[in-house]
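Schema walk-through. Below, the input block comes first and the output block second. Nothing else is stored per chain. Lengths vary across the set, and this one has 114 residues.
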Amino acid sequence: MVKQRSKLTRLKTKHATEVSGKIRKRTDAESTSKKKTKAVPYSGRESKQTKLIALLERPEGASIAELMKATGWQAHSVRGVMSGALKKRLGLTITSENGDGGRVYCIASDTKTA
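--- output ---
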């Protein structure tokens, strides 16, 4: 014996909606319209990327340890952001020198004004 499904079960799909006990098919406008949020410009607190840039713009530069402490990231993440976001996306020239306390990174002076 095959059990017949109720009308509610048959019509309930992702395109159907129930209004006061009655099933009706959603209109195209209802199914495709989504609330669009307006993009709000980032302001307020300082981002980790801006902290990195500020440290790298100092005349003495910054070591990986200083950058790790400022952001809370691991060393490979700091190097990845310097390579990807700062060099490739923002076009900054980051130089590194081997100092007494380890490698020191800084933003080259020719890209600071550009």
